[in-house]
Amino acid sequence: MDEIEKWIKNRDENQLTKDEEKIFDEIGLNGTSRRKFLKQMSAASLSICASSYLTSDLLASPARALPDNPKVLLNEVKVNLKVNDMVKQLALDSRTSLLDALRERLELTGTKKGCDHGQCGACTVMVDGKRKLSCLTLAATCEGKEVTTIEGLAENGNLHPMQQAFLKHDGFQCGYCTPGQICSSVALLEEAKRGEASYVTEDFKEVKTDLKLSEEEIRERMSGNICRCGAYNNIVQAFKEVHSGDDEMPTWEFATSEQMEKAKNS
Ligand code: FES
Ligand code: FES
């Protein structure tokens, strides 16, 4: 950088090449105006050179520090996180969300960050078997609990039945919401077994276990998981199949050619 600066500063009109002199003559820059122009050009060149130096510095800089070694840690707390049956001790800023701890520190990036405000459900994981929005959960509060993420559902190389059902029924398009949808669905199976009530439970007085959820109930209970691709019908079908244990057939059908024609003419 010093070399370039020196070169630009030392460059005056006496060092101009023949071609440069010709250009200056052609555009009518002589004497004082030529010296002023050269001075301004030097300043501009300096900043252009500086920017390319900075850019190449940035490009050449080593990859960012490994997740386990954050450079600055405020309000440090040590947390033993048990995730997918593995215990890891992490030094965390006390304000770290479970979502950030999973993604940034444990590199479990299956759990997705959608809104980061508890509104989309993309970050859903299970904590002690219950669904939780990891973006609204402090990692430090999970000490001593069991966290299960989408990476922990398969066993011995076999997908969880809910994962298989999502594949079978095409319960996704872009797949961004899918880890959250699947974790939510798996936890919902257990909620139904425990007999937990929901907004659409008809009779709160009669508490039953092993609930058989209607389609309406499934939709209500899964309403915290948004799918921007609109794969809802297939998600519900996948859930119903695992919940009932029966083969589920689509409840929709392709339009007939007469119906298509009618729609075209209407
Ligand atoms: S990222 Fe947590 S609810 Fe959207
Ligand atoms: S599959 Fe794309 S957001 Fe749900």
TrEMBL record:
Cell membrane listed as a keyword: no
CDD domains reported in the protein's UniProt record: fer2
Database matches in Pfam families: Fer2, Fer2_2
Domain of life, per lineage: Bacteria
Keywords (A to Z) from UniProt: 2Fe-2S, Iron, Iron-sulfur, Metal-binding, Oxidoreductase
Domain annotation 2Fe-2S ferredoxin-type: ranges: 77-153
GO MF term set: 2 iron, 2 sulfur cluster binding; metal ion binding; oxidoreductase activity, acting on the aldehyde or oxo group of donors
Official protein name in the record: Molybdenum-dependent oxidoreductase iron-sulfur binding subunit
Lineage: Bacteria, Pseudomonadati, Bacteroidota, Flavobacteriia, Flavobacteriales
